[in-house]
Amino acid sequence: MKVLIIEDEAIAGRLLKSTITAIDPDIEVVDIIDSIEASVEYLSTRPSLDLIFLDIELGDGQTFEIFKKVKIEAPLIFVTAYQEHALRAFKLNSVDYLLKPVNKEELAAALTKYKRLHRDQQKAVTDNIYHFLHQFREGGDTYKDRFLARNGTRLISIPVTDIAYFYTREKMQYIKTVNNTDFIIDKRLDDIEADINPKSFFRLNRQFIVGYRFIDKVQTWFNGKLKVQVKPAAYEDIIVSRLKANDFKRWLGGE
């Protein structure tokens, strides 16, 4: 989870960062920006952000000016000493409005609120996608039953029933067969994911798409994550994020 802080008081910015990461060590504070001008310049590059914490009164103006100059899609949590701006803030994409000095409990509650809203939104999007795909497949299209792969100069068509999992390593994509053989496949995992039956395969993380018959063991891991062992064994530990863990468990149960 990537977070940006917009705060012109250096001590307040560092304190907010340390409190956020103390509440959730998985959060990465990508930067602390201290002005309207620098914020507009940074946000104009369309960085990948999950959440923005921002003060309202900065040295070169109010942060509301940022929204007039650049489109911001990430949710916002305002952290300010000025209560009178609350109504205006909530007209934006605001999750919460915290008054300084902010204590750890208030900040934790705001993060929990964001995660709940984000989870509900993601579930709605996922449900819509699966509904669309289900209708699309019922319309006569089918999932792929084989993939073209290569081993050196040799091309081979591999049936899906012979595939244990797909994985990526060092910018290359591979098929791991049930016989523990690796083949290179010239397709991105995102494209492969769209071609396979989601009842049979699950995208565990950025590196692995695994067939349910080849999941050997699932263990609870740190901070709500899961550790998955597959067969044949993978080249690294497979960790399922906390955000994806519930979907994975439902998939394992056939939901």
Automatic annotation (TrEMBL):
Residues 147-254 form the HTH LytTR-type domain. Residues 2-115 form the Response regulatory domain. PROSITE patterns: HTH_LYTTR (PS50930), RESPONSE_REGULATORY (PS50110). Keywords: DNA-binding, Phosphoprotein. The modification 4-aspartylphosphate is found at residue 55. One of its GO terms (molecular function) is phosphorelay response regulator activity. It comes from the Bacteria. The keyword DNA-binding applies. PANTHER family: STAGE 0 SPORULATION PROTEIN A HOMOLOG (PTHR37299:SF1), TRANSCRIPTIONAL REGULATOR-RELATED (PTHR37299). This is DNA-binding response regulator. It comes from Chitinophaga lutea.
